[in-house]
Amino acid sequence: xxxxxxxxxxKRVELGYSIIPRCQNKxxxxxxxxxxxxxxxxxxxxxxxxxxxxxxxxxxxxLQKKWL
Length: 68
Hints:
Helices cover 38% and strands 18% of the residues. By secondary structure, it is α+β, with helices and mostly antiparallel strands.
């Protein structure tokens, strides 16, 4: 999990993440994304973006949640 871009200049960051199969569907990524988004905001980020493949329904579900 991490961010890409030049956030100190643009105040924008793109979130990237992955998780090994045996840890999927246990809520770990939901919790981790919430924590890193809080940290990004505390660091002054104004735009946080994430994307996933259309066929990745689990990831789509996580990203559709309201984080704040």
